Amino acid sequence: MLQSAFDGASRELDRYGSYSINWDGYRAMPFDPALLERIRGLLQYAYLRFLESSLAPDLVTTGPASDGSIDLEIVASGRRLMLTAYADEDAIQAVGTETNAHNAKPQDLGTGNLDEWLRWLDCTLDRGAQVDRSFKDPVRGSAVASCS
């Protein structure tokens, strides 16, 4: 189940790579291949973190936007994490919401690294982690998550 969730999102990225000019009917340009690889790297890293935790996300999906950005959405443990990356920006925008709260307001998780955002999504992802931490996403900022 875990593998299939992430494989589906990866296939979505493959499809975005085949989009031509005007793919949305409103003059959108094709996606930058470097951005697609950046999102693919985020997906792979998140997959490894979920794999080591034995937690399966409820949803893993991506979304293309006409402005050239790509969203990566992961839902787990009653929380939704939405990461948005742009081809011309180093920072990745992160917004989190509680999925089971009525009228939940998004929390701006700011900039940080993927580990921090995944810890916000579910603190069990931080226990016994043995994943190679060499993945460095080009984002700036301080810690935005804690598991207490």
How would you describe the overall organization of this protein?
- The chain is α+β, with helices and mostly antiparallel strands and 148 residues long.
- It has one domain.
- The protein has three helices and five strands, in the order ααβββββα.
- A five-stranded antiparallel β-sheet has the order 1-2-3-4-5.
Task: Describe the secondary-structure layout.
Blueprint lengths: L1 H16 L15 H21 L5 E6 L5 E7 L2 E7 L6 E7 L8 E2 L5 H8 L27
Antiparallel strand pairs: 1-2, 2-3, 3-4, 4-5
Helix pairs in contact: 1-2
Short description:
The protein is an alpha+beta fold and 148 residues long. The protein has one domain (2-126).
Number of helices: 3
Largest sheet: 5 strands, antiparallel
According to DSSP, the number of beta strands is 5
Strand order of the largest sheet: 1-2-3-4-5
- The span between the termini is 29 Å
- Give the structural class: alpha+beta
Radius of gyration: 15 Å
Order of helices and strands: HHEEEEEH
Averaged pLDDT = 78
Amount of helix: 25-40%
Count of domains = 1
Unreliable stretches, pLDDT < 50, 5 or more residues? Answer: 127-148
Could you say which overall geometry the principal axes of the C-alpha atoms support? globular
Proportion in β-strands: 15-25%
